[in-house]
Fold each of these.
Amino acid sequence: MTSATVSPAAALAVNGVPYEAVIGIECHVELKTETKMFCGCRNAFGSEPNVNVCPVCLGMPGALPVPNRLAIEAIVKAGLAFGAAIPAFSKFDRKNYFYPDMPKNYQISQFDMPFTLGGAVSFWLDDGSPRTVRLTRIHLEEDTGKSLHASAGGRLGGSTHSLVDFNRAGVPLMECVSEPEIRSAAEAVGYLEALKRTFVALGVSDVKMEEGSLRCDANVSVRPAGSQTLGTKTEIKNMNSFRSVFHAIDHEIARQIEVLASGGRITQETRGWDEAKGTTIVQRSKEEAHDYRYFPDPDLVPIEFAPSHVARLHAGLMSLPQARLGLLLDRDQLSVKQAQQIIDTPALFEYYEAALAVGAPPQGAVNFLLGELARLANETSTPTASSKFSPQALVEVVQLTAGNTINSKTAKDVIGRVWSEGGSPAEIVAREGLAQVSDPAAVDAFVREVMEAQAKSIADFKAGKDNVMKFLVGQVMKASRGKADPVLAEERLRALIG
Amino acid sequence: MSGLLDGAASEIARAVNARESSAAELVDAALARVGERDAAIGAYLTVADDLARDRAKRVDARIAAGESLPLAGVPLAVKDNMCLEGTRTTCASKILENWIAPYTGTALRRLLDAGAIPIGKTNLDEFAMGSSCENSALGVTRNPWDLGRVPGGSSGGSVAAVASGTAPIALGSDTGGSIREPAAFCGVVGFKPTYGRVSRYGLIAFASSLDQIGPIGRSVGDCALVYAAMAGVDPCDATTVDRQVEPVAARPREDLKGTRVGIVREFALGALDDGVRSVYETAYRDLEKLGAELVEVELPTADYGVATYYLIAPAECSSNLARFDGMRYGLRVEGPDVGATYELTRAAGFGDEVKRRILIGTYALSSGYYDAYYVRAQKARTLIAGDFARAFERCDVIACPAASSPAFEFNAKSDPVSMYLMDYYTIPMSLAGLPSLSVPCGYLTPNGSANPLPLGLELTAPLFADAALLGVAGAYERATKHSARHAPAAAP
């Protein structure tokens, strides 16, 4: 991930004045429901334009919205996963503004009584330091359609007309609003990754930025470190990947500090991230801000949550990525990178836990899981958990190598065989006599054999060409058919050559 | 055959179910009447000849297959703010003048399933905003009792269709009195059920928290029959109430013994013209003669009804009507860019009253005014509903005038506020969501007029007491026989 990159904004002091960034993130997450938020149309990405539509999501005269219960349950689960409060009453409001991709010219959203309030997202930066960002709220709304502009670049400017695809209109959308507690681009990405991991684990969303099922805006301001007053903020839009989130925020922080340090002022405005130019560009200023005339949607009745219903949803929550990450860091002492790689695939996490349950040491298991097993998984397009290599087999391999019973080459061969054929690595090693030869006398026999056959190399070595040793060890391994302990082999070679 | 058209809807359905008549014959008779009479009245914006004949065939086939339908072959006029698949649905607005509805609304579909035959779509004040039908952008509707007068509104076309005998039953919609006031003006029965009883799916919204579809008919019994066929929870309308619909009594009440009728102190009849007052005094006495006990009740906040309504309804309409923008359907006046296209389309497509209400509503919802106007109006609405709840601790139904005068002449109310005040007696009930109806209660001939004009008694019951309300109104109607009188335009 990009968060490892050293950022220009990392050095936040200019002319000796230290600055601090204050960042809040609003992100829109499309829910992965069967049907849309307020009608029975299919919620699917990538269909032919305007096929998943009906009078309701097209805003036809007389059509009425009916809320999707499962979408509401999904957002409640999302809130519960972050420890949010679920108010007993909630309601939908209308957000009024005109736009051609919005069929009713108002969006059904939530203004002052969202489904979830508060909660916190915990995550770890790559250096292992923990962070927590509080959530303000998560509310539910309907998505808009998509405008396609008939111009060369697909932009509105210069287009002769526009086309609208309403397949997306009415798709359930969660808006997650963070408190302005994020302090760097790396934290912003860490926060988003934690959201993504949780929503994927809950099964409430695909969270794919490239398909638009996750879209985010960042409010960025800077101020002298230690100041309690907030600086003027800008809103950054058009960030299409975690990478662009990182670079856009990092760039914006640096830009604002530069403006302030040179005696300038920040203008409150919306800026778009230009990926190609690597800079943010003014889109519109505050003066054009809308009055959305929010009011309770009279077509929808307030929604009540019985505590027992919320408790039932809470009980149904599985162990979440946030909790899993903490477990791997605290209990197993894995590195943040290792822990994230393990939990990012739920099946891999389960496999890892199963291996630990039958006696695998965490670090040893992870070395194979993220090493040779990951390589095989990639090569055969088969997840480790679906291969014939069982958690028990992993324990055996870890033990065989840790106790120097087999060397790494043998380990690799055995893993490859068990991966496709199954079976017990320990049995294979015993049956086929693959155990490492660690008896100095036995190794000496191979060493002498090599010394006789490679007189020239021995002479070279004696003449000071130390790098010939590698070749000689290889010859001992060959002579022993891979079974000699390579460390011992080198030791004996050096001793016997004298 | 046309004789059947002047009888009760239940009698029409009986005759069709018994195959003494057929839906096809009734539809032909009704369409012939429309041809004879409607040129003078102008109740219909669209006459659905082909659709009506096609549906009649289908109903007759169902009867032939052994089905028995509660509204078999009963011709139905439909206010033109309700979607009927394949027919023009205009809201009497230029912005939807040529819009063909792609689906049928729930209430209407239930009536079609029950055997009713839609013969046409009727005129209204544009988007149901008005009390005289004069705000229609697409036609003039005249009162069948006096062609120089308005039919009332906004459901003017539907009441005129029933009063002129072209359709025995009609659907209207009532937001602040749009069924009850015109029903009073045209001498028919108009019933606004409890909010949430009849699905709004397919009713083009004016003010969603107030709009309610209701039946219009020549008798309370006809209205009850239509109500029973369409009431009940609808999965397509989240504001419908999942609660058993009380069955309307099969046999009407003979008297009103044991019923307490509330007379509202704040609606004292002294404010009315002598002739009007005397009709209502008689009406109250008739209720008493039937055995009802008259009790005085108070609605101290009712006087704020009109002001409250004219914040809430415009606020909702400003949002509801935003979708008419020329982008996907309806009128489109092309401008140099999308913003100009919106402006030109809406400037050309909406009439003055609609624009006025969109402006009022936009203002009331604006940042800085929202708390002072919209929120305050909602609080007033709660207080008004509370007043009714307290009043109903002392009575079973409330009786009052449906309107302060009989139908007025065209162009008599050029000032919008004087028009808004026509709904003074109907708006509070709408704000409280109560079931309320207007039943003919007498006639008076104003000075200089050749014809007697009907007046309506408004009866209102507690939430979900729709069936009880119909029972009281039915007893009154049977005893007084005011509903039996025909408008001159409907003279056989």
Amino acid sequence: MKLINKTSQGGSIIVMSLLVAMILMLMPLPDSVRLVRPEWVVLVLIYWTMAAPQRVGVGYAWLVGLVMDLLMGGPLGVLAFSYALICYIVMLTHLQIRQYPIWQQAMSVFSLILLMQMIFLLLTPLSLDLSFGLPALSSTLLWPVTYAVLRSLRRTFHVS
Amino acid sequence: MIIKPLFSNDPSLNLRLLLALIASTVLFFLDTRLNSFASVRSNLSAAVYPIQAAASLPRNAVDWFSDFFVGRQELKEKNAELEVTNLLNNQRLQKLEDLERENLRLRELLGSSFRLRDRVKVAEILTIDLDPFSQQVVINKGERDGVHVGQAVLDAQGVMGQVVRVSAFSSYVVLLTNPNHAIPVQVNRNGLRAIVTGKGLAESLGVDYLPHNADIRVGDLLVTSGLGGRFPSGYPVGIVESIAYPQGKAFSEVRVKSSAHLSTSREVLLVLNATNIDAEIAPSANKLGDEIDQ
């Protein structure tokens, strides 16, 4: 009985953290900082896929991406597919990534988010400019913080 | 303790990615190619609206608090300032009434129908950021308030853009600065017609396809021409900022600064189309309150 309780609670913790990340993505920021906004939702998604791959899988990531497509007002399916792809890569390598030192994890995060931005660039009719890659950079820098926060959440609420 | 499988990359993982790819592709084409899919999307957007509303809450709370703690002195000063502007506006309005009547009489003489005032609806921009490159905003009026796709959106200073997508409680407005957006204008000084397109940057627009000898100068005001039937005519779009004549190119490069405060406005006006209202101007229409649906 107790076990069932805990597992359902774990699910709601994941959903809550994703909701907070979505709100952070939508929060108004001054123009100078907007372009550097880290990809919060992807960071959270990468963490949960890595730490609890039996909970957050490709289908889950696809749904989260679909919600983001709707929130951001872009064409449907673009973010959904990129999130699913990122989740797939993390699922394939989660056993290795878990063992990496934190800076090496951050480098993996950098390449994953850069990959996502390239997909976005291919599918939306906008031109490449200087700010391309800035979100990947800021996400990489914020990965250690996100990791620490989510890990303490996971340990407090026994999400596995 | 749940026993975790050591190797979770079973063959079904590839299958799941394939399914995600197929589902995304289908959705992408339905969304971008099929017009009848818009209603499905609008329902889905309504479902995620609470998240958008939640994201705009902190900013609204900050606004509310700063309103609450405004000093009495500050309010008095602001009130005095507003009274002066009101007086000036009223004086201009008297003149306008007169001119409007005269214009109407002259138009009647010419036998052409013309609408001087459009009915508007007030909406508020949700304080959330979308993708910085998409140049769109979300407003808090939707299908239930009679908003429809293609409706022109203004702020107090000029044209902001048009509605591109409507859901039950909110709608998406594409701004003039979107590179895919174009609006028919004319130069207020001489009536020269042109097309203004977005340049993707904040408050920066450009005029396309004007030959080098076109009569346009720095400081010219561009207003909507009403051609194309989407935007009502006569609203300010922008002011010409600079003109360059690059050699070897057929058209001049005209930079325009938008009149509307695209990145700072909070309240916007939605123009009701001529099809929604009767085009005649009632004599009582000189009360501004009649024209604004709250």
